[in-house]
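Job type: complex structure
Entries:
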Amino acid sequence: MRRYVARRLGYALLSLFLLSLTIFLFVRATGDPAVLLVEPGASKDDLETIRRELGLDRPLWVQYGSFIGNLVRGDFGQSFYYRTGVLELYLSRLPNSLLLATAAMAFSLLVGIPTGILAAVRVNGWWDGAGKIFALLGLSMPSFWVGLIMILFFSVYLGWLPSSGSGSALHLIMPAVALGWYFAAAHMRLTRSSMLEVLGAEYVKLARLKGLPEALVIGKHAFKNALIPVLTLAGINLVIMVNVAVVVETVFAWPGIGRLLYEGVAFRDFPVVQATVLLGGVMIVIVNLFVDVLYAVIDPRIRYER
Amino acid sequence: MNTSRSASLTLSGRFAALRLSGVPLIPMAILAALVLIALFADVLAPHDPEVGTLGDRFRPPAWLMGGSDKHLLGTDHLGRDVLSRLILGARVSVVVGFTAVIVAGILGTGLGILAGYLGGWVDQVIMRITDTWLALPALTFAIFLAAIVGPSEMNIVIILGAVYWTRYARVIRGEVLSIKERDFVRLAVVAGCSKRTIMRRHVLPNVVNSAVVLATLMLGVVIVTEAALSFLGVGVPPPKPAWGLMLADGKKGLMAGYWWLTVLPGACIMLMVLAANLLGDWLRVKLDPQLRQL
Amino acid sequence: MSAPLLEIRDLSTHYVSARGTRVVRAVEDVALRLEAAETLGLVGESGSGKTTLALSILRLLPPAARIVRGEIRFEGADLLTKSNAEMRRIRGKRIAMILQDPMASLNPLFTIGDQVAEPIRVHEGTGRRAAWGKAGDLLRAVRIASPETRLTEYPHQMSGGMRQRIVGAIAISCGPRLLIADEPTTSLDLTIQAQYLSLLRDLQRAHRLAMIFITHNLGIVARMCDVVAVMYAGRIVESGAVREIFNAPAHPYTRALLESIPRLGDAQERLAAIDGQPPDPAALPAGCAFHPRCPKAMDRCRDADPPPFTVASGHSARCWLWDS
């Protein structure tokens, strides 16, 4: 197990290195990165100062070295708009996005898994048909549109829920459902197909031959096995959610990193944009690592992999 | 070098299989209609989508009170005709969507074949890059790139292509790895064909299926991403009507209850994505059951 | 003479396609008799209906299959009239079954102990600790070394032979009267097969178990079974005591099967095979299903499906040749 974790850790570190390199190169690739890295409305002298400060005339690998050095020290640049370090800004908003993503993930799993299981157990029945339609629609509706429609319904027409901001559980409901909707459909689909596969397995047949009650056959033997791919996907999806939440957060003015990114773009606050991409990637790498380890905990076969 | 073609399935053979079973009429009809609308948008649109009459703002659709036949689906906050904007928006979605998917497809398939067939350091390099780019969240990455190069229709296509090629590369490389072991490839190697010829004549036709399926599945994703970019203001720049942009504008009238500005553009997006997904699912099942895990 | 443990009369199980168009007569008109502690060999090629017959007894058929008529009397009661709940209590407890692939039969995510103890806990209501203790005893009974360690391990850590023994342990855990083994040695190495078969034999003697041994291997039948039933295209074409049938096979199919086994010492140059292919179960030939391949086919065989005729006491064959 330890060897497995160590190997995964190595891969993660490699990914992080490549990630930073990619971002770095992209910024440099446009020819004059100084324009980006300087406040909008800066004068020519300011541009020159920045160029010298960043050492844009020095060789690329030296620049990268100092870039990485800064990152490791936690210096992701200064936000033009907020006038504070970008990292602190990001970290202060991150919990909000995590909260939103967790709520959305909970919603997607609570809706997706049971419906998927039901669709598989009553395959080709009414429930399965309804589920298929729900899945199709869910996967085709952009999350921000779902959010806007919900605002129309629950805020404008019914007046039940607040249309923006954060601060109470009521504020969380609509953004979480809007964000989770697509994933609920995806999880339902995966649960259904995974469950169908498991239900056809020999060990399920044997469980029935043992005379176990159907609830035990499905709830114990089929369920855990069917869940493996779904949870793997869910783990990866969680981070995707945090990042894709940009639009949902913008629609609902939810103060997370997604909205931060939007502000960065709207106010031409490039350091914020750059850091958000970078940190978004870092999060994905970390979560992938976590999911790999979690996988090994659930599925004993993985632990003994050489 | 002409080696045996019987083992390697030809494109026409595959398409023959397609014609035999029930073609999904509805998604294809929807997509065909959208393409036609895109082509003839200028003729179809009743009004100029970019210019509006300020006196005519926020008119509801014709069948509601306050609506008029002049603007069948109402007007937006600048008095522009919604129907015309939707039609022109279709052009944007179709053009950007299809082009981006093709660009990403060519790039991704090409690199996937190279990585899979050549192996070695080429494979390692391409795969490391792919993995890294896959770790970057697509939407965020696209926004980042748009912030760097600035938004324009052309740039968006390039950006989307740059973000999504990795999805192809991964899958195609996997396919190539197994194709490499098949007899007709080995025969070609033994016969002395150059690597380039083999990749072009034997490997490529056999991965085209997967690439096409992927492209159809990616179409939906690309369109939603483009809509998101437009919604956030970094997509196709105004006043050109993109559905995502219409949603952003529509938000302004949302609290006042001007629902058609939100529901209609979003419904168009959903329709196109739905058609693409249905077609993609059907293609996936028909062309290559091995791809079911996609 | 006491009533047999298992008596099947007139059993027919059909698979119906979704639109009701194709009907596959997987099991047709089957009659069987099994006494306590007796072993029946059920022989036939793939697709002859052996597994469907086994699943019919346990009433665990897939949704497309239907038992259209018949009677399955087990311990005096007709299983076909029992409710689902009653069948559930019988499965695993009074009738057990072993499947072919031991790796696939065991759930990869749960420990051996959990899986062996499970039927004991469900059927006998035993507590966890006691059930695990009994599981250890069962592993010992199937000759697995250091059973206590094995209990906490997972299926993928065992060898194929061990897994099949564990499956055997699960099967006998609640003291069933009848064990159905569906090709249990087919996926085992040859060297392990013999050990496993002798284990089954010993278990049978120790627990007075009746067995239905499904196989396509006549050698195993000769070793393990007291009586044998030969299946072809869903019907039992011949049944009787093993010795009888091996010495004097009555049905041409049985004869052909026996002849196709190469014998050491025989100066045979070519392996005798049966001409033709097994019939498509959805499109059976008219009359006797075997007639297209039968060297002794008569006109009668094309017209009508023969009923079972008595060849000798306890030995019958479905063949017009024996119509006296």
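Summary: The mean pLDDT of chain A is 83. The CA atoms of residues 76 and 87 of chain A lie 6 Å apart.
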